[in-house]
Design brief:
The protein is an alpha/beta fold. The chain has twelve helices and nine strands. The protein has a seven-stranded mixed beta sheet with strand order 5-4-3-6-7-9-8, sandwiched between helices.
Length: about 270
């Protein structure tokens, strides 16, 4: 891979990095977002990594799953747009590059490209798929899971309603990409992939730390546009809207996740 451009960072940016309306703090993510990697068993099994294979983990985050892939004996390279996450993954002893998923510079290097819970943060889907195709050897496989059509629909609708009053289009700022299976299959096939499987999987996900923590972790880039007092008020209003549908009588919250999981092969 070509060397990534040098990025000038403030002291604050060394631990938290903003990318496309989302701020990633590696320590906070490890504490509050680890359930994302813990729920990746299905797509991890679908990858079926083999010893000696060269595998790219696209959107590797802090490297929790990259480490699991490496434990199979595969030779794994991670890539992530967040400098904070890259540094956290490198601290695990992993080989990780900092780059946007839409600007991959690999060429025929990998037997497989794997991605979990990352492609929905990459709205330039065609550029991402083209880069993955180029990165794979002929016959290489692309295996991934990410937010699909209808993902966190209630949460997104509530945020959109609340933040509109503050002059913020939450959907535009979040820049998320949640396609249907038919849509994503068409994109894969247009760029030379043969789709072996592609499924939309509803996955209601318990939030042990509650919805407020989820909002401040996974929509902090959007909420960060507000002054502190407005942010607290907006979060409270969003919780009020969501409570009847995503919180049970015992006060336990569930996120309305819907995942798109697929396996495709480069022609």
């Amino acid at each position: 891979m070509k060397d990534s451009p040098i990025v000038q960072q403030t002291e604050e940016a060394k631990t938290a990095t903003t990318f496309r309306g989302q701020t990633w703090d590696a320590a906070e993510y490890a504490a509050k977002g680890r359930f994302v990697a813990n729920l990746a068993g299905g797509v991890f099994d679908l990858l079926a990594a083999k010893p000696g294979e060269a595998i790219l983990d696209l959107g590797c985050g802090d490297g929790a799953l990259t480490e699991r892939i490496a434990a199979t004996g595969a030779v794994v390279t991670g890539v992530d747009a967040s400098i904070a996450m890259v540094e956290a993954a490198r601290a695990r002893g992993l080989t990780v590059h900092q780059a946007s998923g839409s600007e991959l510079q690999y060429d025929g290097e990998f037997d497989a490209v794997f991605s979990n819970a990352a492609l929905h943060w990459m709205p330039e889907a065609e550029a991402v798929i083209a880069g993955v195709h180029r990165a794979l050897k002929p016959g290489g496989r692309f295996v991934a899971e990410f937010g699909g059509h209808g993902n966190i629909a209630a949460i997104r609708t509530a945020l959109q309603a609340v933040l509109r009053r503050y002059g913020i289009d939450a959907e535009e700022v979040a820049a998320s990409f949640y396609p249907s299976p038919a849509h994503y299959r068409g994109l894969l096939e247009a760029y030379g992939f043969s789709v072996r499987s592609i499924d939309l999987i509803p996955r209601p996900t318990p939030l042990p730390d509650g919805m407020e923590v989820w909002l401040n972790t996974f929509r902090n880039g959007v909420l960060g546009l507000l002054a502190p007092q407005d942010r607290a008020r907006a979060v409270a209003e969003t919780l009020d809207l969501l409570r009847p549908v995503l919180c049970d009588a015992g006060g336990d919250w569930t996120a309305d996740y819907v995942r798109l999981r697929f396996a495709a092969v480069r022609g």
